[in-house]
Amino acid sequence: MILSENNxxxxxxxxxxxxxxxxxxxxxxxxxxxxxxxxxxxxxxxxKYGTGxxxxxxxxxxxxxxxxxxxxSCLGTGDYRESPTEFAGEDPAGFKFSYAKTYEAxxxxxxxxxxxxxxxxxxxxxxxxxxxxxxxxxxxxFDTAITRRAVLVNNTDQPVTVTKLMSYMLDIxxxxxxxxxxxxxxxxxxxxxxxxxxxxxxxxxxxxxxxALHNPGFILNEPGATEECGEVLGFNLIYSGNHYARVQKxxxxxxxxxxxxxxxxxxxxxxxxxxxxxxxxxxxxSNKGFGGMSENMHRFINEHIVPVTWQGKDRPILYNDWxxxxxxxNEAKLLSLAKKAKKxxxxxxxxxxxxxxxxxxxxxxxxxxxxxKKKLPNGLSGLQKKxxxxxxxxxxxxxxxxxxxxxxxxxxxxxxxxxxxxxxxxLGRNExxxxxxxxxxxxxxxxNVSKCIDEGHVxxxxxxxxxxSTALGATAHKCVMGLYDVLNRIFTDRPEVLLxxxxxxxxxxxxxxxxxSPQIWSSDDTDAVERFHIQYxxxxxxxxxxxxxxxSAAPHSQTLRDTPLTTRGNISFFGLLGYEFDLDExxxxxxxxxxxxxxxxxxxxxxxxxxxxRRLKATEGISMQxxxxxxxxxxxxxxxxxxxxxxxxxxxxxxxxDKRYNVERSKQLQNASKFGGLLKVVLPVKVHPDGLVVRxxxxxxxxxxxxxxxxxSGAALMSGxxxxxRFMGTGYDPQMRMQGDFISNIYLLTEES
Length: 753
Ligand code: GLA
What we know:
Elements: E1 2-5, E2 8-12, E3 17-22, E4 28-34, H1 42-45, E5 85-87, E6 95-103, E7 121-129, E8 133-141, E9 146-154, E10 160-173, E11 177-182, E12 190-195, E13 201-204, E14 214-221, E15 232-237, E16 243-249, E17 254-261, E18 268-270, E19 275-277, E20 281-286, H2 289-304, E21 318-320, H3 322-325, H4 331-344, E22 348-351, H5 379-390, E23 393-398, E24 402-403, H6 408-412, E25 432-433, H7 439-455, E26 460-463, H8 473-491, E27 498-501, H9 511-514, E28 519-521, H10 528-538, E29 547-551, H11 565-573, E30 576-579, H12 588-610, E31 612-616, E32 622-627, E33 631-637, E34 649-650, E35 660-665, E36 669-670, H13 678-682, H14 692-700, E37 703-704, E38 709-713, H15 714-719, E39 721-722, E40 744-751
Parallel strand pairs: 21-22, 21-30, 22-23, 23-26, 26-27, 27-28, 28-29, 29-30
Antiparallel strand pairs: 1-2, 2-3, 3-4, 5-10, 6-7, 7-8, 8-9, 9-19, 9-20, 10-17, 10-18, 11-12, 11-14, 13-16, 14-15, 15-20, 16-17, 24-25, 31-32, 32-33, 33-40, 34-39, 35-38, 35-40, 36-37
């Protein structure tokens, strides 16, 4: 509900509340973002200014300078903290409260920017700026989040040049640490935590897109917060372009947070009567630690961000031909793979790059949509019909925003490509980007992609984008708006087509794309152990239902790591399971194991994809769980093994204390050759550990680990389930867990009936 009394505004539900008031001088004083409070709490919550600090300044006649918690601010008012608004050549002056309006729904953004959807209430605060500009601050209350955005309207008779306009600003009290997620191609989402100090921390992308360099989402936590306890706030932006956030503490103990479109090189001329809409910011609060914050963020994304058709809907298990074939395939090879994928239990066959134009490498063909008849003589529809007969639906890769200079499209329309302001041609993966601010470029993409989807009865699209942009400021923003327009036009009328966004992996893992594509390819780093960390860090801000995570070949092509197939599967379970390597190379024992993996995943798919997720503490390794209340699945992942390990426990959470649960640990399978010289000790016959017998046996037989089962109360399990001992080389016990590097286990806890 949205309450207001005596110029105090309170947005509140059972989970959260947000409160501010209009001061007698028309400023917005921030009072609270956190637990549900009451209108009558103003006095308890407002800062007490006293006689103030020396050398502060403020507008004439106001009883104290601008050093109190604010909802919005402006340069030149005496507030020397980060300003959310800047205009070129304007005399500085403040925004003052004009009026407020409430709505029992979302207020739609009046441009192609995506926004959160579903049941919500909105408060609009209108601020007036000297001379006739108005700033509209929208606060929308959802179950587990507040969204905020700002709209500037030019009611003057002169154009105004906006050089900076953030989506939101707020000042909260206290000490915080800030976690940001940074990286690069195949190294996405590396987390960095730092104390927010007086110099502030900036999290910004200028690559034209949200980028793997700096994900727009970030976290603030009170020092000492854990997964289960303490105040943790999550922030994100529903935007896929250049973004900016700054968090800075002041000497007075206030922390200012601003987030919005990056102001670098930004100049937007707002003509009389025009409005400028900023992307929506998302604010989440929990006093139940990082886990509580993630739970709120996950719920918000699953229920209010992803397209309605895909909310809570199980995602198919897919096979993608890219890592197995790259550009080198024909219809016969694809069908051979498809038959094997079907036998394994896959549901969707995705044809990745290389199906069109002269696309035999990444040097040519991008921008063209004519099917390569040498590879696919029966076209897309011919392939689709054959896949349908096999029992698989058909998915197709596109990279519509880019063009190779060596393509029919570029030769016909060189003026459609974006070029750097410097005049230098900047290529990325042999590509240029198309200028999506141009209507004719957008029409070309919409027409061609739609035609391919319809002709090929395509039920899944992988929408890729493989380079950074050289565009900054307004040009970059217009291209992102152009992209949203294109996505709207193609997919609004085809809601049943599952869209997976990709940008060289996770180079555009953001809430803007998630409004169109319910899932995103997490990373081109398909080494399971590396990607585990990417998925783990994504989980702070994004639900498992959004993370494309495939099992790939071992030894892995990027790291040369030989991760057991069991672990590769277990890691992909905590995401959206898929397979991506040459299935024609599978051994019989691998085929069996994958069939078992898919069977297990299908049985628990809804819990994995949409269950309540938690990162857990563990004695050793990294642990996490998903739960639908009835079944809880705990994953325990180890990296390098070490000698003489101690006793170990896992600590599931959220169980009912006096309920009883059946516990079952899945098998960890190992290739016998791992046991090296030990084979000579345990086997009755003498074998060479790397000889023909062991290698041939390895294709048909796996060493099975023990299976731990027990029955226990929720209270006992939450106190720590004691795990079977690990193999230590001191002897053999059939109950122990076989070790080795990169092993993992899945524990299934099912409520006893
Ligand atoms: C990008 C994607 C990959 C694959 C290739 C195809 O790198 O991230 O998954 O689709 O392009 O060229």
